[in-house]
Automatic annotation (TrEMBL):
It comes from Paludibaculum fermentans. Keywords: Ion transport, Membrane, Transmembrane, Transmembrane helix, Transport, Zinc, Zinc transport. It is a multi-pass membrane protein. Residues 210-282 form the Cation efflux protein cytoplasmic domain. It holds the Pfam family Cation_efflux. This is Cation transporter. InterPro entries: Cation_efflux (IPR002524), Cation_efflux_CTD (IPR027470), Cation_efflux_CTD_sf (IPR036837), Cation_efflux_TM (IPR058533), Cation_efflux_TMD_sf (IPR027469), CDF/SLC30A (IPR050681).
Length: 295
């Protein structure tokens, strides 16, 4: 199969994976609420976070293709960071609620409808297992597909655990297994969604991108030919892949020098991946400003 064929294949696997996952989420939430199974609710939340992250990744690609306009001079890239942040906060709230449900119903004496829980977990196992199997076929060459495959295989394992747990509870009457499984799934989901929350907040709050070291950027600017000072330095994210920089450079050049500006732009682009740079070039005498008015 050709290289593009592989990509097409995993694209459709992703698309079908998210459709089935969306249906699964709805069924799991409904039946989890009806039966009172915290494990099903936790699995539903986890599958929801999977589906939303697929949709957000797709949305980010679409938004990054939209050109900037006169009204939106940066385009719509920031939208995906805002969506990711709101999504992460809602997810954290839901996880907290489910953990609370699991703990407060830990010792409930009334049995769950174990047959219904098992049937739903079996459906989840089918969907996650089918998605994993589809991804596995394309996972030899593509690192992303391989990561997605391993994730879906883990999810299938979780569904199997919920299925087995409900079976054991039905036989032994140990209701707490449901709560324990819910807490494990909550912890797993928390582990994957907390970094998304931190990173998206960094973008929403105009923080320096995680992969850029500001002192190194400052040092690189000061090392440019003829630069004697650098101040009012700002670096922030335009999107998950693009960064912007503004800075004032004090130079001892005789006159305006486009070649110098080109060297600075290219070095920031190649060393730090900063694609959008705006520089204010200042002569050293007389001194113009005293750093950033925001600092
Ligand atoms: Zn998952
Ligand atoms: Zn520009
Ligand atoms: Zn200045
Ligand atoms: Zn400033």
């Amino acid at each position: 199969m050709s290289c593009s064929g592989h990509h097409h294949h995993s694209d459709s696997a992703f698309a079908w994976g998210s459709v089935w996952n969306g249906l699964l989420v709805a069924v799991e939430f409904a039946i989890g609420a009806w039966t009172g199974s915290a494990a099903l609710l936790a699995d539903a939340t986890h599958n929801l976070s999977d589906t939303l992250s697929l949709l957000l990744a797709w949305g980010a690609r679409v938004a990054a293709r939209q050109p900037a306009t006169a009204e939106r001079t940066y385009g719509h890239r920031r939208l995906t960071a805002i969506c990711a942040f709101v999504n992460a906060v809602v997810l954290l709230g839901t996880l907290g609620f489910i953990a609370w449900e699991a703990v407060t119903h830990w010792n409930d004496q009334n049995p769950l409808k174990y047959g219904v829980v098992m049937a739903t977990a079996a459906a989840a196992l089918l969907v996650n297992g089918w998605t994993a199997w589809n991804l596995q076929k394309g996972s030899d060459h593509d690192l992303n597909t391989r990561a997605a495959y391993l994730h879906m295989a883990t999810d299938a394992g979780v569904s199997l655990a919920v299925l087995a747990g409900a079976g054991i509870s039905a036989v032994t009457g140990w209701r707490w297994i449901d709560g324990a499984l819910a807490l494990v799934i909550v912890a797993m989901t928390l582990r994957s969604s907390w970094p998304v929350c931190v990173e998206s907040w960094r973008m929403v709050a105009d923080g320096v991108p995680a992969n850029i070291d500001l002192p190194q950027v400052r040092a690189a600017l000061l090392a440019m030919p003829g630069v004697t000072g650098a101040h009012d330095l700002h670096v922030w994210s335009l999107s998950t892949t693009e960064s912007a920089l503004t800075a004032h450079l004090v130079v001892n050049h005789e006159r305006l020098d486009n070649r110098f500006l080109g060297v600075v732009h290219e070095s920031l682009r190649s060393r730090f991946g900063i694609a959008h740079t705006t520089l204010q070039v200042e002569a050293s005498e007389p001194p113009l400003c005293h750093g950033c008015p925001l600092a």
